[in-house]
Amino acid sequence: MNLRTIEKSTWVYLAIAFLLFVVPFLVTGRSIQFLIIQIFVFGIFAMSYDLLLGYTGIISFGHVMFFGVGAYSTAVLFDRFEPTIFTFGLAILVSAIIAGVVSFIVGILTLRLKSHFYAMLTLALAGLFLVGAEKWRKVTGGSDGFTFGLPDMLRDSFTLYMLSALSLVLLFFGLRRMTKSPFGKVLVAIRENESRTESLGYQVLHYKVIVSVVSGVVASYSGVLYILSLRFVDTSVFATDLTIDVLLMTIIGGVGTLIGPIIGASLIEFAHHWLSDLSDVHWLFERWIILYGTIFILIVVFFPKGIVGTLADRYIRWRARRTE
Amino acid sequence: MDVLVSLAVNGLATGMLIFLLAAGLTLIFGLMDVLNFAHGGLFIWGAYTGVWAYHMTDSFLLGIGTAIVIGLALGLVTERLIVRPVYGSHVQQILITLGFMLVLQECIKVVFGPDQKVVSPPSYLEGSFVVGDIVFINYRLFIIVIGLVIFFAFYYLFKKTRVGLIVRAGVMNKEMIQSLGINIKLVFMLVFMVGAALAALSGMLHAAYSGVIYAEMGLEFSILAFIVVVIGGMGNFKGSLFAALLVGLTQAFMAYYVPALSLATNMLLMAIVLVFRPQGLFALR
């Protein structure tokens, strides 16, 4: 491979990725490592969401169902079988298959319709999954949830950190490769002008279904990681709040980029962490969602590209002025 | 038999409340092509402010009046500040109104406190009467009557008056209406305000019906209203009545006969409609 053909930004990302693997040697506090693991998990979840929202222009209100599917399949498998690495692999496989099948069916049914139908049907389905998890007590333990044992290897917070960091980095580069491929270009074309893309001879529906399946499978994997870090599962993994969280992460960080959702995830996870501490100082901080929602509205109106998109635009303009 | 009738009354009452909520939403969509996810926020603001006025003054009518006024005012604010910048883009509308929904819901907690509030209907609407062996609860009948009155009032307004004509024509072809010299933006704003007021009224009536209100109702009812609009056909006023009654009745009967599935009823209904008739059961076009 010729090193010169690699883009400059790839080196930057590789350097950041390398730093991520150094961090756990410097930051050893369990709670802070846990927080960073959460950021990685939600970074993956938000990236998968951005494949739909940012790259293809599909709004899903039920993305949490894939997350929940990943979480529950893992928890149930660890609960029923010996907690070994093999079970872990099986959990990833099973959740990917379920998420893939569900997203395929949903996609086939509604992606040919206007955008809000997909939003509504995914919302409805996520609601059904939540109700299902509450009612199917034999397997899910209902709303009380259950704890489960992990293989010895995954119990250590350092290993878990490395696993989620590695997952984030690999998925980031993998998805980046996908979005830069001709396939990714077609997705962006669909977002920009669906009927024109169709009249150019692309089977728009095929592309949309494929991306929704990829997105669902990646989201389910983030659910797997999430539940490993918690070692406890309950119906909250299907809550609509999580969909809204991931929506905010994507929008605030920057739609249509992959690094944006990761940045959004870190900001929002940190905000969750620090603001819930601040609520002891003043009760108004408990209502931080107001602030959150207001920022969100302002971003949708004034910076529809989010933090990363806006900064990138500034940078491009600044470079253009300098080269003049 | 008596069970069937009381379930039906129950379902119709719920349906009427949902209709009031969804009517505004469907008009806003039909006329302005706006997907307003903040509709449930207007609903809870109507409920909380109405109940506040009702408890302060001990007058239920004043509570209803307050809810309607607050609904009109919030409708104006929502249309001006939130929806106007994003006309034409569905994705942005969904996102921004969802954000506003969260803000409205949290503001309720700041102003009125995060706890549930208990409400009961005024004494003259409380109680029940018996016909044969069937018990009728007064407040439920009251809601059904109010719902029917509002439906027919609006139906008359749409079919017989000039304003109604403009709105109906606007739903069909707004560019044409504009070129005929009618200020369509003003019509948009008025329809939005009226829709918001209906949602607020629905919230107030629902408060005394269910007996308890809480801020999270906002998102729940936003979703419920959308389900009804999807089932009834986007932009169809009459369709939203039928769909709301269908949802209300199904909910009531499922809760009685198949309680395990009652939570999933609405979602199932919508999923079925979306799969087999995505334009809605009573679609115009």
From TrEMBL, chain A:
Q: Where does it primarily localize?
A: membrane
Q: Name one GO molecular function term.
A: branched-chain amino acid transmembrane transporter activity
How is the protein disposed in the membrane? Multi-pass membrane protein
* Taxonomy, superkingdom: Bacteria
Provide one Gene Ontology cellular component. Answer: plasma membrane
The protein's UniProt keywords, in alphabetical order, are: Cell membrane, Membrane, Transmembrane, Transmembrane helix
Any keyword Oxidoreductase?
Answer: no
Which compartments does it reside in?
A: Cell membrane
Q: Which InterPro entries match?
A: ABC_transp_permease, LivM-like
Q: Does the keyword Heme apply?
A: no
Residue ranges spanning the membrane: these are 12-27, 34-52, 58-78, 85-109, 115-133, 158-175, 209-230, 242-268, 288-312
Q: Which is an annotated Pfam family here?
A: BPD_transp_2
Name of the molecule in the record: Branched-chain amino acid ABC transporter permease
Q: What is the lineage of its organism?
A: Bacteria, Bacillati, Bacillota, Bacilli, Bacillales
From TrEMBL, chain B:
One Gene Ontology CC term in the entry: plasma membrane
Cell location: Cell membrane
So which domain of life are we looking at? Bacteria
One GO molecular-function annotation for this sequence?
A: transmembrane transporter activity
Tell me which Gene Ontology terms the entry assigns under biological process.
amino acid transport
The residue ranges crossing the membrane are: 12-30, 37-54, 60-82, 134-158, 186-209, 221-247, 254-276
How is the protein disposed in the membrane? Multi-pass membrane protein
The entry's family comment says: Belongs to the binding-protein-dependent transport system permease family. LivHM subfamily.
What is the protein name for this chain?
A: Branched-chain amino acid ABC transporter permease
**What organism does this protein naturally occur in?**
Halobacillus salinus
